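Hi everyone,

Forwarding the result from last night's run.
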Amino acid sequence: MTPPKRQRRNPTEQPPPPPPVPAGKPKNPERLFVVAGPDGGERDRDLDLVTLIVARAEPPPSATPEQTALLRLCSSPLSVAELSAYLNLPFSMMTVVITDMLTAGLVTARAPIVRQAVADRSILEAVMHGLQKL
């Protein structure tokens, strides 16, 4: 059995032109400055990747799609990093959106709960004695 022969491409041939984009549908998604608003870079909050965000209210009719999605996700506490991943927005944009929502009173931000490095010895002994009695 002989292998099929390859056909060489002619280097002078140009690829076909891309199809025209319909006028009603934009090709690119919204730019980030549209999501952030006109004064998006002027706000400064102490938000980091592990700050927990919790929704305080239902989305108002004037909320942007990003704010509505964020409020629906934050029925239980979520970190800014998780929200950034779920909404597919960079951290810098998330801080702008969350800062706007904090100012409007739609969400609350709190630091994560830090566990103690070492458990209390008396609690560990009580658990150990309880297990031994079983």
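The radius of gyration is 27 Å.

Cheers,
N.
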